[in-house]
Every structure is written in C-alpha cells, then in structure tokens.
Design goal:
- The protein has about 210 residues and is mostly helical.
- It has one domain (about 55-205).
- It has five helices and two strands, in the order H-H-H-H-E-E-H.
- Helix 2 runs antiparallel to helix 5.
- The chain starts with a helix and ends with a helix.
Length: about 210
C-alpha cells in the first residue's frame, strides 16, 4: 500500500491520474451530449411528423371541399357570361365567393417556431399559398361589398338600370361586375390547383 501511495505521489503518476479523470469526465459529458442530441432529434422528428400529418388532414379536407365548390361556381359564372355575350342581358345578382380554407395549422406552426422542422421547399410553397388565400379572401370581400352597395339596392329596377338597351352591354356603372366575376372564378380555380399541388408535396414529405 505504501508503494502504491508513493506511485500516486509521483509527478508522472499524478499526470496520468489527472488525464484519466479528465477522460472519464469527457466521456461522461460527451455521452450525455450524444444522448441529449439523440433525444432532441427524436422529439423533432416526432413533431415534424405531427405537423405533416396535420397539414395532410387539413389539405385533404380543403381539396375535397374545393372539388365540390369550384365546379359549381364555375358553372354559374360561365352560364352568366354566355347569356351576357349572347345579348340576353341577365340581371346581375349576388354570388357568394367564400374562401373556406382553414389556416389553423399554418398559424400554429408559425407561432410555435417550428418552421425549421419542415422542408424548405414546402415552407416556401405554404407561405405563397396562404398569402394568396389572404389576397383572394380580401378581393372576395371587396366584390361582395360592391354587390351590396350597387346590385342589391337596385335588384327590383328595370333592366335599363344595368344595361344599354341598344348595345345590350352593361352600363358604365356596372362594368366592374363582369370583370369581378372572372377574377373571383379564376381565384377559386387557382386555389384549387394550389391546394391539390401542396397535398401531393406534403405526401411526398411524409414518405421521405
């Protein structure tokens, strides 16, 4: 035991003991770091899959809804425009262009700071999508406001209120109506295409 004590008091032995202790500490710290990093990665992967799954459910619901609404609105607008072009002078009326796309998941992702977990390409596409949704929704509100201001109060008036009887075209006061119908219909069709495209992209991210 005495010899062992002397060996430990030897400068070279002290250095070896110090190195050994530092090595143990390093291994312990590094091991904890590796474990913590592994746990964090697993948690991030779980959160990412949760986000993708929620987005898939949201876009599947939106896609199904758009497939029903868009053809219906497209048919109504096409019929009105055809009658207009044929000189039948259809009375303008109120069309309900409502953007019923939910934004809950996207807003939750933004508020949680989880953008770094999502594929960069998908983040860019989602950002453009929801920006266009906000723009289209605002345009729908403007259109509906004009309809309530100019169309509904004059709904019971004679056709001369709306048309030049000689040309069978809208009076200047109502020229915005036909252009707005086209714009609203185009917005709806574009949103449907974007929704379907994003659903494909989300499924690809889930499969990767």
């Amino acid at each position: 035991m005495v010899g062992s004590s002397k060996n430990r008091n030897n400068p070279r032995s002290k250095l070896l003991w110090l190195i050994a202790e530092l090595l143990v500490v390093f291994i312990g710290v590094y091991g904890a770091f590796i474990f913590d990093n592994y746990r964090t990665n697993k948690q991030n992967e779980y959160r990412k899959q949760q986000i993708y799954t929620a987005l898939k459910e949201e876009f599947t619901f939106s896609s199904e809804g758009m497939k029903q609404v868009v053809p219906l609105l497209d048919g109504i607008v096409t019929e009105f425009k055809s009658e207009y072009e044929e000189g039948k002078m259809p009375k303008p009326k109120r069309f309900h262009f409502v953007i019923g796309i939910r934004t809950d998941i996207w807003e939750a992702v933004l508020q949680s700071g989880a953008l770094e977990l999502i594929d960069v390409k998908l983040v860019f596409q989602l950002s453009n999508y929801y920006s266009f949704i906000r723009f289209a929704a605002e345009e729908c509100k403007i259109f509906d406001g004009l309809v309530q201001q100019y169309i509904i109060p004059n709904a019971d008036k004679n056709i001369e209120e709306f048309y030049n009887i000689k040309t069978k075209k809208f009076n200047r006061k109502y020229l915005w109506y036909l252009e707005s119908l086209d714009n609203m219909n185009n917005y709806m069709n574009r949103i449907q295409k974007m929704t379907d495209s994003l659903l494909v992209e989300i499924n690809n991210c889930i499969e990767d």
